[in-house]
Structures are given as structure tokens and as C-alpha cells.
Amino acid sequence: MTEFTPIASTMGGVLVGLSAVLLMAWEGRIAGVSGIAGKLLPPYADGAFLSRLGFILGLVAAPLIYLLVTGNETPQTVSSDMPLMAFAGLLVGFGSVYGNGCTSGHGVCGLSRLSIRSLVATATFMATAFATVFIVRHLLGA
């Protein structure tokens, strides 16, 4: 069962929002993680390789910094079913390309700009997530 963590969740949301605002203020770009990660590979179109790399390294470093500061590991549950994980990764990658953005680009930045396209994309992400959790927890018994 998932724990109810309103304070940690709120603080996480504040930090995600703050990072999106800072990226927009300093770089003039939307904080879509799939777009940032996808443009780390050549050809480099806009010369922003170092800022993209820094953004991704920050995502990787955050749990390590949390561990150093608090002494607690970041709890995670990841499936050990590698074919399932590969399939899920392909679905996420396809969805972010097909949807022209990911949950961070549409859900955080797009909704705050009142984008109708982002509203539709986020509603689709969320409906799919709800259905997936229901199927896995209640129909498959996982």
C-alpha cells in the first residue's frame, strides 16, 4: 500500500515548480524532461548541451544529496521484471514523442500556461495511470 505523505509531496511539488520557473527564467525554455534528455544526443541543434547535461545530472544527484544531508535513502520500488520494464520504457518514450511532450512539460509547465493541448495530454496521462494502477492492483492482484 502507498503511504500518505502530504508534507513531502507538497515540498516535492514546490521544488519541481521552482525548478521549472528557474529554467524558464534563466534559459527561456520549458522544463520538459523528455525533451531535455532527448536533445542530449547528437546532432545538437541549439548549443545548450551543457545546460541540458546539468539538468539531467541534477536529477540523478538529487537522491544522493538527500542521502548525504539526511542519512536516509530515498525509498523506491522498481520491478525486477526486465522485459516489463523495457516495454514500459518504450511505451513512455513513444507516448512522450507522440504527445509532443512528457508529464513535466505538459503537466507542470503547460497547465500553468493554460495550454489546451497540455490539458488534454495531462488528462490522457492521468487516465492511463489510473487505469494501469487499477488493473495491476485489482485485476492482476499485484
Could you walk me through the main structural features you see in this protein, from its secondary elements to its overall organization?
With 142 residues, the chain is mainly α. The protein has one domain. 71% of the residues lie in helices and 0% in strands. It is built from six helices and no strands. Helix 5 packs across helix 6. The protein is globular. The model has no long low-confidence stretch (mean pLDDT 86).
* Major sheet description: none
**Rg (C-alpha, Å):** 17 Å
Return the domain count: 1
Instruction: Give the helix tally.
Output: 6
Please give the alpha-carbon distance between the first and last residues. Answer: 11 Å
Derived structural class? mainly alpha
What is the residue-mean pLDDT, rounded to a whole number? 86
Percentage of residues in DSSP E strands:
under 5%
Overall shape: it is globular
Number of separate strands:
0
H-E order:
HHHHHH
List keywords for this structure.
142 residues; mainly alpha; 71% helix
Give the structure's gist in a few sentences.
This protein is an all-alpha fold and 142 residues long. Helices cover 71% and strands 0% of the residues.
